[in-house]
Design a protein that fits this description.
It is globular, with a radius of gyration of 17 Å. The chain has helices at about 25-40, 130-140, 175-185, 195-205, and strands at about 45-50, 60-65, 65-85, 95-110, 115-125, 130, 155-160, 170-175. The longest helix is centred in the first third of the chain and has 16 residues, at about 25-40. The chain starts with about 25 loop residues before the first helix and ends with a helix. Strands 1, 2, 3, 4, 5, 6, 7 and 8 form an eight-stranded antiparallel β-sheet that branches. Strand 5 (about 115-125) and strand 6 (about 130) form a beta hairpin. By secondary structure, it is α+β, with helices and mostly antiparallel strands. It has a domain at about 10-150: Peptide deformylase (Peptide Deformylase, Alpha-Beta Complex), CATH 3.90.45.10. It is built from four helices and eight strands, in the order H-E-E-E-E-E-E-H-E-E-H-H.
């Protein structure tokens, strides 16, 4: 297995609709294993193949304590009202915003062995943000980023600071898409940006 370079916002592969997988071969299984390792190294909740430069309809995600892969996924049912919650993305690191998502979805597809699978995913204490994650990753496969759906006034940098009691905290500072892109393009991230080292190295290299 290997940790793959994560593509950062601005890379054209992230806005391209991924293609369906016709045959599941050793190449797809290796890709999935590498994607899981990459997601874990970046402390992510999910990762889609386009985020590592592969335009195929594959993603991996966490559902509670479990990690799963889905090939050619499809949401077959959405339930409950759409709720607005904080969301981030490994391809737009150090940033978060609020997005409206369904709190419960049922998703189908195939696993890395080609077996048909179905998952009922919810945002709750047991599964974490599994429903949000599935919707976020399928958006990636359609070439859509969460920032395109976010409430603009909630887009914020995540900066690590020390409060009056000497405790380390992460504070939000309002930003704009233009400022984010300019910061990434300059390859000069704020020193206190809350971002995994593997992603900071990816941008600042």
């Amino acid at each position: 297995m290997a940790i793959l370079p994560i593509r950062i916002w601005g890379d054209p592969v992230l806005t391209r609709r991924a293609v369906a997988v016709d045959r599941i071969t050793g190449a797809e299984r290796k890709l999935i294993a590498d994607m899981i390792e990459t997601m874990q190294a970046a402390d992510g909740a999910g990762l889609a193949a386009p985020q590592v430069g592969v335009s195929k309809r594959i993603f991996v995600f966490r559902r509670g304590e479990e990690t799963h892969a889905l090939i050619n996924p499809r949401i077959v049912r959405r339930a409950g009202e759409r709720k607005t919650g904080n969301e981030g993305c490994l391809s737009i690191p150090g940033v978060q915003a609020k997005v409206a998502r369904h709190a419960r979805v049922v998703v189908t597809g195939r696993d890395e062995k080609g077996k048909p699978v179905e998952f009922e995913c919810e945002d709750n204490d047991e599964q974490g943000r599994a429903a949000t994650c599935v919707q976020h990753e399928i958006d990636h496969l359609d070439g859509v980023l969460y920032i395109d759906k976010a409430l603009p006034e909630t887009l914020s940098w995540l900066l690590e600071e020390t409060d009056d009691d000497g405790e380390e905290v992460v504070n939000l500072y309002e930003t704009t898409p233009e400022e984010i892109r300019a910061t990434y393009n300059s390859r000069r991230l704020p020193a206190n940006l809350h971002i995994p080292d593997v992603l900071r190295e990816r941008i600042e290299k």
